[in-house]
């Protein structure tokens, strides 16, 4: 798995940090890591992040960017939404009414998991809302599988493998997510998009390739 490098300090918190709000992201990360009997040093090696960065996140001293959380999620073979949602009963079918969406807010937008509660899922359907200037963070995102984005409102600028794509209402983009990518609302109006992350390997494969124990995909 390709790695990206994050700063050893909490500097990335200045770029689209995810707010903890009612959810303790750092505490959730610690419990997920400890449940898998993975040391913070092993997680640092698997994710490409500094031990100090992970420690600051777990202790609530910094809020991680979306790209940093994606690196950690890939290393733990978990969906990124696992850090925001408490453990819930798993089902083979999930039906959500419009008023049942439970977005996790961050300073410049919100992220709602449209598949929460689905057992052993291989896709992550997310509703992404961004205020002007909001983006995925300073580091390019790299993870296994494919990524699909459909613009619902406003404009979202995607950079994939050095190429820039501006998505407007009804525009879509599908790409292999091992290509370095990032996104930003570079417009002066709010933007919304349907973001679907599709895994390309069984749960635990990424961990095994990094010498970590096999783990379940769902928390």
How would you portray this structure in words?
The chain is an alpha+beta fold and 219 residues long. It has 2 domains: 84 residues, lambda repressor-like DNA-binding domains (434 Repressor (Amino-terminal Domain)), CATH 1.10.260; 101 residues, Jelly Rolls (Sandwich). The chain has 5 helices and 9 strands; from the N terminus they run ααααβββββββββα. A 6-stranded antiparallel beta sheet has the order 1-2-3-9-4-7, with no helix packed on it. It has a 3-stranded antiparallel beta sheet with strand order 6-5-8, with no helix packed on it. Strand 1 and strand 2 form a beta hairpin. The two termini are 22 Å apart.
H-E string? HHHHEEEEEEEEEH
**Large-scale geometry:** globular
Name the poorly predicted regions. 1-21, 202-219
What does the largest sheet look like?
A: 6 strands, antiparallel
Beta strand %: 15-25%
Strand order of the largest sheet: 1-2-3-9-4-7
CATH superfamily of the largest domain: Jelly Rolls
What separation lies between the terminal Cα atoms? 22 Å
Radius of gyration: 16 Å
Query: Per CATH, which architecture of the largest domain?
Result: Sandwich
Residue share in helix: 10-25%
Strand count? 9
CATH top level class name of the largest domain: Mainly Beta
> Number of folding domains?
2
Mean pLDDT, nearest integer? 77
Compute the number of helices: 5
Structural class: alpha+beta
């Amino acid at each position: 798995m390709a790695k990206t490098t994050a700063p050893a300090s909490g500097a990335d918190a200045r770029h689209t940090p995810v707010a903890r709000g009612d959810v303790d992201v750092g505490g959730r990360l610690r419990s997920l890591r400890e449940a898998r009997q993975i040391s913070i040093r092993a997680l640092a090696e698997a994710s490409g992040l500094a031990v100090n960065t992970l420690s600051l996140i777990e202790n609530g001293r910094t809020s991680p960017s979306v790209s940093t959380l994606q690196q950690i999620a890939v290393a733990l073979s978990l969906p990124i939404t696992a850090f925001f949602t408490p453990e819930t009963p798993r089902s083979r079918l999930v039906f959500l009414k419009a008023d049942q969406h439970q977005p996790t807010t961050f300073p410049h937008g919100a992220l709602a998991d449209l598949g929460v509660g689905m057992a052993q899922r291989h896709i992550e359907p997310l509703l992404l809302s961004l205020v002007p200037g909001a983006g995925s963070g300073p580091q390019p995102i790299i993870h296994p599988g494919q990524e699909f984005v459909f613009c619902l409102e406003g404009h979202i600028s995607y950079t994939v493998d050095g190429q820039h794509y501006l998505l407007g209402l009804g525009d879509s983009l599908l790409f292999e997510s091992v290509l370095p990518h990032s996104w930003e609302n570079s417009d002066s109006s709010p933007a919304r998009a349907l973001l679907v992350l599709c895994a390309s390997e069984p749960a635990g494969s990424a961990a095994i390739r990094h010498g970590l124990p096999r783990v379940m995909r769902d928390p």
